[in-house]
Specification:
The chain is an all-alpha fold and about 90 residues long.
Amino acid sequence: MPNIKASERSVKTDAERRARNYSVRSAIKTSTRKVEEAAHAGKADEAKTLLTQAASVIDKAAAKGVIHKNAAARKKSRLARKATAAK
């Protein structure tokens, strides 16, 4: 535990940020898993609609600074490739 007052406050805010970021990352993982499952099952239409939802979740995470914008672009690109391969 830190002895300096400002460090004590930053420990608290870091924990809050970590919890918020964790929920956003979890939402990314869930949405990508749904797209991959639909693509693997051969449901091309469902995969396309889930892809747009996943892209939205990923873009929001990048806008919030949870993930880097290039990481977001990479995730979306890989998902799009898997969704189109489902056809």
